[in-house]
Specification:
Elements: E1 4-12, E2 17-25, H1 27-33, E3 45-46, E4 53-55, H2 69-84, E5 95-99, H3 101-104, H4 108-125, H5 133-136, E6 137-139, H6 142-157, E7 176-180, E8 184-189, H7 193-198, E9 204-209, E10 215-226, H8 230-245, E11 252-255, E12 263-264, E13 281-284, H9 288-295, E14 327-331, H10 332-339, H11 342-345, H12 352-364, H13 367-375, H14 385-406, H15 424-430, E15 441-443, E16 446-447, E17 450-451, H16 454-465, E18 478-481, E19 491-492, H17 504-520, H18 525-540, H19 544-561, E20 660-661, E21 667-668, H20 687-692
Parallel strand pairs: 1-5, 5-6, 7-14, 11-13, 14-15
Antiparallel strand pairs: 1-2, 2-3, 2-4, 7-8, 8-10, 9-10, 9-18, 12-13, 16-17, 18-19, 20-21
Helix pairs in contact: 2-4, 6-16, 9-14, 10-14, 12-14, 17-18, 17-19
GO biological process, one term: UDP catabolic process
Keywords: ATP-binding, Hydrolase, Membrane, Nucleotide-binding, Transmembrane, Transmembrane helix
Biased composition (Basic residues): 559-571
């Protein structure tokens, strides 16, 4: 086993399934490497762009034929995860499939059959850790999804590990979480002390564990609103529009939430000629103020509230103290505020007045002008006509949910003009700047390069559960009802907290892996810097067995990191280069005494771009083995005119320590390309070249130190 531990989670949504792979340090290693004060932190999780892959459609489409979900859907996601997780750690790596909106809509019996088929297939076709199907393969309610999102947001923002840097007042240091998809919306936050005590029975008790084995507990409120996602809200809006204006003689419905001049069907498909469509059509007027007014009733603020206070649809939510509760919003909160208007205020804090003006100006434009600007990519490549068509309604819905529904202040913390020291101009200016997460609301997508996703929250919980408790009295990691002791509905993280031992070989392998990943991530100067580090390591660690462990670890990582299906190149760090052997006609090849070990020379290429359409096929490009040992002496020729020759084996074959160069420029190999005949040269003929190396000294062939050179030894002897 190595220093890393891994986790795989599949987000089974309504439109598709996305697999996420995360890794974190083994708890023993993490404690050893922890900086001062680091033992009070949660485990540090890592992921990379190519660790994620999404496919369509969603697993819910297999509700009628669940037996097909494995070969037709899951297999390519499992293959992707297996290409990332080291083979010797698969058995210790948990896999989860958490289904959300799409599967929630299936009948209970179809849900059960589908999830059972997923578990059976995953167990049969992988060795990932899957001890409990009910825990690892499940449909999660919206409240749980919101709680996981709350964990992810606070984990990335530092609210857990550095509370002293996030003092919001009244002893509060965590952030609230808002999520909105197509079908539902979620909210999760930790109420202030007064509200937490008043509504204790409505809260979830969340327990995690820091590197020192101590528990961290939080009391969090989380709830969901079905039907309050943007797509279902739009459907409810159209129904209300029809009820208010439609008669049998009406063919056109004026829609203030569509750009002026745009005509669509009730389902949102643009139409060119209204007379060709049966039934009513929507005609855009582009009146954004009217759109906001007409979407407000969809909040259902007047619904009966059985348990005060309520926000939307008569659903109970403890009072939010915006003095201390600062919210981050993901998904539609980000896309609707930044996707179309990103060019205007990329990554800046949400500002109601500025945002409202942007949307109002946009929606007032004629549709033909908007289409032209989309074609010119005025708002970027991601914005097509469909996005531009929908943004007016989405923006109006978001503004209503945020400010009239949840109660987010429109301009900072809204103070009364009668408040001492209140200055309206100063308030407006203060909250118009880029204030990051200091305001009551901020839309986010990534924090420090990592996506704010509920899947991250789930894996943070699992990783913290792997840390051995510091006391036998420590409670389990997970969440449940906020009651003394362990609640009957307490859902444990399901973690295996047994420490994973590391030996010397693991340490070398991990070092090789880390360096190889850095080398493959860039072709800039940092790439050459890493190569220099490898050479230095090879010099200082000259024991043959350690060098071979290091070499095998790097080779394995280079192969594993290559995106499946990408072509293998003719040169690589351990195949064609002037340090380890070349494939061009001007250089002899590093050889092994046993051709069966040629697999050590397989190359890999990493492509860190979009992995959503990766090919699982693999080619092969292997080094050759001639069956003869590497010659003991090489003469170096340096070409001062081309510094690139140091790393480029294609430039005439003039490699460092790899061949003999005659005075007339003719290069003589130490052996021929077939590897069958060893050439010999007289000492007299080589005299000019030998003088370059210090003629007069006796040969080093028998030197006891010669065999210790990491660059002159054969790479493997059997």
């Amino acid at each position: 086993m190595g220093k890393w531990r891994w986790g795989v989670i599949l987000d089974a949504g309504s439109s598709g399934t996305r697999v996420h792979v995360y890794r974190w340090l083994n708890s023993a290693k993490a404690r050893t490497d922890a900086k001062p004060g680091g033992l009070t932190s949660l485990p540090t999780l890592e992921t990379k762009k190519h660790y994620t892959k999404k496919i369509k459609p969603g697993v819910s489409t297999f509700g009628e034929h669940p037996a097909d979900v494995g070969p037709d859907h899951l297999q390519q996601l499992l293959d992707h995860a297996l290409s990332i997780v080291p083979a010797d750690q698969v058995k210790d790596t948990p896999i989860f499939l958490m289904a959300t909106a799409g599967v929630r809509l299936l009948e209970p019996m179809k849900q059960k059959a589908l999830l059972s088929s997923v578990c059976v297939y995953a167990r049969a076709h992988t060795e990932f850790s899957l001890p409990d199907c009910d825990l690892h393969i499940q449909v999660i309610p919206g409240e749980t999804e919101g709680l996981y999102g709350w964990i992810a947001a606070n984990y990335l923002l530092g609210g857990f590990d550095s509370p002293e840097k996030h003092k919001h007042g009244k002893g509060h240091h965590t952030y609230g979480f808002l999520d909105m998809g197509g079908a539902s919306a979620q909210i999760a936050f930790a109420p202030n002390a007064t509200e937490a005590e008043k509504h204790a029975n409505d809260l979830k008790l969340l327990r995690m564990r820091t590197l020192d084995g101590k528990s961290k507990e939080y009391k969090v409120f989380s709830t969901t609103w079905l039907g309050f996602g943007v797509n279902q809200a739009r459907e409810r809006y159209i129904e209300a529009l029809i009820d208010a204006t439609y008669t049998k003689d009406t063919h056109e419905l004026l829609d203030p939430c569509l750009p002026s001049g745009l005509q669509t069907t009730l389902k949102g498909d643009p139409v060119q000629a209204a007379s060709s469509i049966k039934g009513p059509i929507l005609v855009g007027t582009g009146r954004f103020d009217e759109c906001v007014k007409q979407t407000y009733p969809l909040l259902d603020k007047d619904a009966p509230c059985a348990d005060q206070p309520c926000l939307l649809h008569g659903q109970h939510v403890p009072a939010i103290d915006f003095d201390v509760n600062h919210f981050v919003g993901v998904s539609e909160y980000w896309h609707t505020t930044h996707e179309v208007f990103e060019m205007a205020h990329k990554d800046k804090a949400y500002n109601f007045l500025a945002y409202q003006k942007l949307v109002k100006d946009f929606c007032a434009e004629e549709w033909d002008d908007i289409k032209s600007e989309v074609a010119e990519q005025k708002w970027g490549k991601k914005v097509g006509e469909k996005t531009a068509q929908e943004v007016c309604f989405k923006a109006s819905w978001l503004i209503n949910v945020l400010h009239d529904g949840i109660g987010i202040p429109r301009v900072g913390i809204e103070k009364s003009p009668n408040t001492p020291g209140y200055n309206r101009t100063k308030e407006m200016l203060a909250h118009g700047n880029d204030r990051a997460f200091l305001d009551p609301f901020q839309a986010v997508n990534k924090i420090d390069g990592m996506e704010v996703s509920w899947t991250l929250g789930k894996m943070v919980l699992y990783a913290s559960g792997q840390i051995p408790p510091s006391s036998d009295k420590a409670g389990p990691v997970g969440f449940g009802s906020n009651v003394p002791g362990i609640a009957s509905d307490f859902q444990q993280a399901g973690s295996n907290s047994n420490p994973v031992p590391m030996d010397d070989e693991d340490s070398w392998k991990d070092t090789a892996e880390d360096l190889a990943e850095k080398a493959h991530s860039s072709f800039t100067s940092s790439f050459f810097f890493v190569m220099v580090i490898l050479i230095v390591i090879g010099y200082f660690f000259r024991k043959r067995e350690r060098r071979m462990r290091f070499y095998r670890g790097v080779s394995h990582t280079l192969r594993r990191n290559r995106r499946p299906g990408s072509p293998r190149k003719g040169r690589g760090f351990f195949s064609s280069g002037k340090l380890f052997g070349g494939r061009s006609s001007g250089n002899y090849e590093r050889v092994l005494e046993d051709g069966g070990a040629a697999h050590e020379f397989e190359l890999g290429d990493t492509d860190l771009e979009d992995t959503e359409h990766s090919d699982s096929s693999e080619g092969s490009y292997r080094g050759h083995a001639s069956g003869l040992a590497t010659p003991r002496m090489s003469v170096v020729k340096y070409d001062s005119g081309t510094s690139s020759d140091f790393f480029d084996s294609s430039a005439g074959g003039q490699g460092i320590g790899l061949g003999l160069t005659h005075a007339n420029g003719t290069l003589h190999n130490a052996m021929d390309r077939s590897g069958l005949v060893v050439r010999t040269e007289s000492r007299e003929r080589l005299a000019p070249s030998l003088q370059m190396l210090g003629a007069g000294r006796r040969s080093r062939a028998g030197s006891p130190t010669r065999a210790k050179s990491p660059l002159m030894m054969p790479l493997q002897e059997i």
